[in-house]
Specification:
Jelly Rolls, 2 domains, alpha+beta, six-stranded antiparallel β-sheet, 6 helices
């Protein structure tokens, strides 16, 4: 009887959280609709009439993804309507020892990153013909990733690190390079890679970890860690046009 009561209390709490999330989503949609219709900044202020509409809690779990290599919380116009028409967004991330924010781009924003603690490797490549830019950051240092550049960060230490990043668009977008490339039609990916068979393409495509992944082998060896299992939920969706061999 006590166990049944306990289970019911858990289910009730889960229902309550689900209802809160639904209510928050509905409110966000309503605020964004009002902001889009508001003709002036003063009118937008009147849409965001609750003082808490101007508050974003980076510890609430809103906008957070958690993977093997760490967790990342993004405040953008989709979850923080106050950013509407203000031209910026912010990300806070914790990377586990040897964690890596895998190569990606922000198609609509330049990013400036500040390292709160520890040590980090960061690099980027811009357009065709550009050189590779690489730096090792220590506590209190920052770096910049130009709009559209392919960039990454690696925690090269054996303790967690925290970084804060600002982006100059309220809807910066993120495109993970590996997932998107291997989400193309397999024969296109095969031809791009040269002398690689379709089976190899398929194996690579289904083995790509999510964005906050476990990093490079030299760090794992230094820290006495193993790669272990990783989540793979960010794969490119498949349909008849980009299906892997044997899955059509």
């Amino acid at each position: 009887m006590k166990f049944s009561t306990f289970v019911l209390s858990i289910l009730g709490a889960a229902t309550c959280v689900s209802a809160q999330n639904t209510n928050a989503t509905t409110k966000t949609a309503e605020l964004l609709e009002g902001l889009q219709k508001a003709p002036t900044r003063l009118a937008r202020l009147n849409v965001l009439k609750d003082n808490k509409d101007w508050l974003f809690d980076f510890t609430s779990g809103l906008g957070t993804t958690k993977n093997a290599g760490g967790n990342i919380t993004a405040a953008n116009v989709a979850n923080f309507p106050a950013l509407f028409a203000n031209g910026l967004a912010m990300t806070i991330a914790q990377m586990e020892p040897c964690g890596m924010n895998t190569p990606h781009t922000h198609p609509r924003a330049t990013e400036i990153l500040y390292l709160v603690n520890g040590e980090m490797e960061a690099g980027f490549i811009e357009e065709n013909g550009a050189r590779f830019v690489h730096n090792t950051l220590t506590k209190g240092q920052g770096t910049l990733f130009p709009q559209g550049s392919i960039h990454y960060q690696i925690n090269t230490g054996c303790d967690p690190v925290l970084f804060v990043a600002a982006l100059n668009d309220e809807d910066p977008g993120t495109s993970q390079i590996a997932q998107r490339f291997f989400g193309l039609p397999p024969d296109v990916t095969q031809a791009t890679l040269g002398d690689v068979g379709l089976q190899e393409v398929t194996k690579l495509a289904i083995g790509i970890p999510d964005n906050m992944a476990i990093g490079v082998d030299k760090c794992l060896k230094k820290c006495g860690l193993t790669r272990g299992s990783q989540t793979m939920k960010q794969q490119q969706p498949r349909d008849a046009d980009n299906a892997l061999p044997g899955t059509k």
